Amino acid sequence: MKVDKKLFKEKVKPLFSGAVFCSVATVNEAGVPHVSPIGSVVLNDENHGWFFQKFTKNIPQNTNSCEYATIMAVNDGKWFWLKSVLKGQFKKPPAMRLLVKLGKLRPATEAEGEKFKRRVGFFKRTKGYAMMWQEMAEVREFEILEYKPVFIGQMTRNQFN
Q1: 13 phi/psi in degrees, rounded to 5
Q2: Where are the domains of the chain?
Q3: Beta strands in the chain (DSSP E)
Q4: Given this model, what pLDDT does residue 133 score?
Q5: Residues 38-43: contacts with CB within 8 Å, 24+ apart?
Q6: pTM
Q7: DSSP single-letter state for residue 41
Q8: How far apart are CA 53 and CA 57, in angstroms?
Q9: Residues 147, 138: contact at Cβ < 8 Å?
Q10: Are 36 and 23 in contact (CB under 8 A)?
Q11: 15 and 92 in contact (C-beta within 8 Å)?
Q12: How far apart are CA 85 and CA 159, in angstroms?
């Protein structure tokens, strides 16, 4: 699917920014798939993004044999789904997949760290925050090769209008 700046700004970026977590699917050298939840996917523009890679074991291993992955975000908002089901259509995409080419793992910039801290700042005073997100040091950039919307029959007929 072709995505211009307006569609990216109004429909795609809000979906990924609002997703609690995204799924990143990779395959190993034997062709066995693996899906990892990632809570830090950030889209810079229509062609590039990044995510923090801290707890994943399979992504680093799998990128040695295949640099391609699929990233999927789902709008999990209860009100979004209730309103959409009652109206019989999604005005915005309920989910989107991105076919990406993964880049090398690199140290996060200060700006990237601050962006993520704002996203999870609500939890800053919790024990879980200290255990999971206090030290987010490395990001993996990606290049977006293709946008693959998730279609759910007639419910998604107007999601890109």
Answers
A1: -60, -45
A2: 5-150
A3: 22-27, 33-38, 42-43, 48-52, 68-74, 95-107, 138-149
A4: 57
A5: 38/71, 39/120, 40/116, 40/119, 40/136, 41/16, 41/71, 41/73, 42/16, 42/17, 42/112, 42/115, 42/116, 43/8, 43/12, 43/13, 43/16, 43/17, 43/144
A6: 0.87
A7: -
A8: 9
A9: no
A10: yes
A11: yes
A12: 13
Task: Return d(Cα 62, Cα 75) in angstroms, integer.
Answer: 27
Say how many residues make up the chain: 161
Quick count: other Cβ atoms within 10 Å of Cβ 39? Answer: 17
CATH of domain 5-150: 2.30.110.10
**What is the identity of the amino acid at 62?**
N
The model's confidence at residue 124, banded by pLDDT at 50, 70 and 90, is low
3 state DSSP class of 74: strand
The number of C-alpha atoms within 13 Å of 53 and in the hemisphere containing its C-beta is 22
Give strand pairing partners of 97: 72, 148
Instruction: Name residue 45's amino acid.
Output: D
Q: 138-159 pLDDT, tens per residue?
A: 889 999 999 999 999 899 988 8
* Mode of pairing for the β-strands spanning 48-52 and 22-27: unpaired
The confidence score (pLDDT) of residue 2 equals 84
